[in-house]
Design a protein that fits this description.
about 0% strand, globular, mainly alpha, about 70% helix, about 230 residues
């Protein structure tokens, strides 16, 4: 399949074969969106209206903080809080009851400007992933040689199979993805079990051997596999 502006970003996240490629894809889009809204876009009225309406989730507040531009984030938070005060907590009216305020407040937890943009970006990139898997044998081989697909992104991929692939192409994709999961979860389970067993007095000191790094980091790897996010621990 001929490389294009659509296929190049896909190959870039699949070629390293490090972890879940869909996580890498999500992380790339996430980084671009975070840089975009913390830059000049922060002052664009349309963007500010959307950030005031949708806010941010905990994960993406953290990603925005990592941009090291506290003034931009502070300006967005200022107008977001002003909007919340005016439209939820200080709004008056006979039809705006306490129950309505609680409902509005609950809705604030369920929306995120970055999530909405990342979901849109990933959805469009997945269109290309399915097309490449179907039409490009080289990419199919690359897909099948990945280390793993995490559980949340396995679920995402499987939810799209019925609409993105013809029936004749679905089995090959499902089988390839299932194999990636099966191979990795077996390896991961063995590593976590070895980590637990290392605390037995009969295995004292084994965990610190140079060749036991995969066992020492198995807890973090398991969390990333199950959640699609690296645990934020030092």
């Amino acid at each position: 399949m001929r490389e294009s502006i659509l296929t190049i970003p896909i190959n870039e996240v699949f070629e390293p074969k490090e972890g879940c490629p869909i996580c890498a894809m999500r992380n790339t889009v996430e980084e671009h969106i975070s840089e975009y809204i913390m830059g000049a876009a922060m002052m664009e009225p349309d963007v500010r209206i959307e950030t005031n309406r949708l806010g941010f989730c905990h994960t993406h507040f953290n990603s925005l903080l990592k941009q090291n531009n506290r003034l931009s984030l502070g300006l967005m938070l200022n107008t977001y809080l002003q909007s919340a005060r005016a439209n939820v907590f200080e709004k008056k009216g006979i039809f705006f009851t306490k129950g309505a305020k609680a409902k509005k407040c609950s809705e604030m937890e369920d929306t995120c400007f970055v999530c909405s943009k990342v979901d849109w970006g990933v959805e469009h990139m997945l269109e290309t992933v399915f097309t490449m898997f179907r039409d490009d044998q080289k990419f199919r081989n690359l897909y099948c040689s990945q280390k793993y697909i995490c559980i949340p992104h396995y679920n995402l991929l499987m939810s799209h199979v019925p609409t993105k692939l013809a029936k004749g192409d679905q089995k090959a994709f499902i089988d390839a993805t299932d194999k990636l999961i099966e191979n990795y979860i077996k390896e991961l389970n063995e590593d976590v079990e070895a980590f637990c067993n290392s605390f037995d007095y009969r295995n004292a000191g084994k965990l610190h051997n140079e060749d036991m790094e995969h066992v020492r980091n198995s807890i973090e790897r398991a969390i990333e596999f199950l959640t699609s996010r690296k645990p934020d621990v030092k």
